[in-house]
Amino acid sequence: MKLFLTFFLCSLTQLATARTLLVGPAESIRSLQKAFALAADGDTIRLRQGIYKEGTLQLTKSITLLGENYPVLEGEKKFEILHISGKNITIRGIHFRNSGYSAMNDFASIKLVDGSHITLDQNIVSNAYFAIHVSNCTYVHIRNNRITGIPASEQMTGNGIHLWKSSHATIENNVIKGHRDGIYFEFVTSSFIRNNHSENNIRYGLHFMFSNDDSYMQNRFINNGAGVAVMYSKRVRMEKNHFEENWGASAYGILLKDITDSHILQNVFMKNTVGIFMEGSSRMEITRNRFLNNGWAMKIQASCDDNLFHYNNFTGNSFDVGTNGTMVLNRFENNYWDKYDGYDMNKDGIGDVPYHPVSMYSVIVEQNPTTLILFRSFMVSLLDRAEKAIPSLTPEHLIDNKPMMKMLRL
Amino acid sequence: MLKLSRYVLYDILRNKIVIAYTLFLLLVSFSMFRMEDNSSKAQLSLLTIVLIVLPLVSLVFTTIHYYNSYEFIELMLSQPLSRTKILLSEYAGVCLSLLSAFWIGVGVPVLLFSADATGFALLFTGSALTIVFTSIAFYTSVRSKDKARGIGFALLLWFYFALIYDGLVLLTLYAFSDYPMEKFTLLLSALNPIDLGRIFIMLKMDISVLMGYTGALYKDFFGSGTGVLFTTGIMLLWALIPLWLALRSFRRKDM
User: Who's near B212: CB < 8 A, 6+ residues apart?
Assistant: First the structure.
């Protein structure tokens, strides 16, 4: 209560001094640049509908910029549109269009440098090189923005939301399409990525490196060039996300490289070439996920250790698990595998014979990819049967000792 | 010719084997769709039926039918009818009865339970394989006068197409694994109608896995318009060439 009162009084004092500046073609202040120069900390600028061509705008004061009916800030394909550094800044309801491209600088529609407590809300960014570029900021909130790019080559397109060396950021309810990476995190800690929709980006839907203690939840990553990559990070929580239709020779639902002590919970992996690809990862818990109709539900390289896979549903995948070695240091327990054909004599819902998730043919395909053409042939199913009876090629310790008889309710 | 085909059809229906075959297919398909909790698993089991059972039944049934109606054919030959017409009406009769058995036995359950792209691919492949293997069986049985030899050869052919061929392909791919074999495997797949049909279904069933690795190449080829034309064209060749060979040797044959 005390805290609330203090907050309330503070905002009252601010109200007393804060002004509202109107900017528009029919107002006394016609350019945003002028408004920025006139404004003092705590002021609000209302931007009327219109098209503003003002080159690169610099904003360093603690102001709130509100657009009415989405005024357009035009970059004329030459300029970085808005450059922000400072604190307590809010930008809402503005359409940023056609920002410039530069091979030397990371030109962005909205660039945030050395700031804190900055909110970008309900903006539209179209046809940008980088859309939102954040570096060295804390407490940045990027919410409800619509970002669409025109996908060119990987070199000609920047990232949708790009964060570098920041902390305590929140990325929420954004829609990002047609960029290089939908959301890019590098050296970003203690942040949330929630409920975003990242689709048709040419490289990754989410690209995540050296970023510890973050979590991403309830996002949808659909049909991105290479899916989602999470690399060199610790203590990451990945919950309730959807990974769909990431197709291609190196496309993965999630690519995990050198990830430790992280959790993958309640996600849905659907129709990906590979659901989860794991390399050099350890001490992960993968639980209550659904793997539906993927090429490979998971590919776990032999460099992974001490990971626990339990209570997941595997249905309709062409291959359940693929691996590149015979060494197995991971545990599989209580998963439901639709290819399991064992029995349950004591009716406890757990199969009495272990399940081998790695089929012989997945080993063969791993060694000699061309043989994929023989998949589903009679001879291959005979080979698989023979291998099940007498394992020779497949890693014999990669087993689920307690496979579930019925699909888990997730 | 139509009249003759009708007689052949009546004859086939009278001996009830085709009816039993229809019921068998119907029973198997229905029970698969009822038993499995998702229809994709049932489709997988049906794939085995289409790729293994269908060619076998087509081959064996056609061969036995041909030898059993040998006397009827001889009788017809004494009539003022052309040999081509006689054999074609035999072919049409057998082929139609087997096809209708397949459409009723597998087509109806598939349309009822899973009328999607995979289902239609299954039906297409099944129909094509029935036609192809009937043609092949006609050729082998016209060629050999001895019944045991004819049936034996038909079985051998089935064994070759369904099993041995894939083994040989696997061996070849392993032996030449250091070379780029993708294009060559495309050619190899055209040399076996069962493989061709399997790949056609796989494109619908396992699209995700086919997008990885060299799979993308197969997908690009078979999944494109030219690929569909290629599959249909090769299947047609597989049906027409044995039939044409059968007709040629039937015309020249000393009965």
Answer: A248, A249, A251, A273, A274, A295, A296
Q: Which residues pair with B184 in a beta bridge?
A: none
Using CB atoms, which residue from B37, B52, B189 is nearest to A378? B52
- Domain residue ranges of chain B, discontinuous segments joined by +: 2-252
> What does R_g of chain B's alpha carbons equal in angstroms?
19
- Strand segments, DSSP code E, in B62-120 are none
- Residue in A closest to B162 by C-alpha: A378
Q: Tell if the pTM clears 0.90, that is, is over it.
A: no
Tens-digit pLDDT profile for residues B102-112:
999 999 999 99
CB-CB contact of A122 with A172 (8 Å) = no
Tell me if B189 and A373 make a contact (CB, 8 A cut-off). Answer: yes
All domains of chain A in start order, with CATH: 15-329 (2.160.20.10), 359-394 (no CATH)
Nearest-Cα distance to chain A for B177, in Å, is: 7
Nearest to A245 by CA among B43, B115, B207: B207
Summarize pLDDT for A151-178 with one digit per residue, the tens.
777 778 899 999 999 999 999 999 999 9
Q: Each residue of A110-129: pLDDT tens digit?
A: 999 999 999 999 999 999 99
In this prediction the ipTM stands at 0.82
Residue A294 exposed, middle or buried by CB count within 10 Å (0-12, 13-18, 19+):
buried
Of A367, A372, A381, the CB nearest to B215: A372
Q: How far is CA A369 from the centre of its chain?
A: 29
d(CA A321, CA A111): 43
Chain B from 52 to 91: CB within 8 A of any A CB: 52
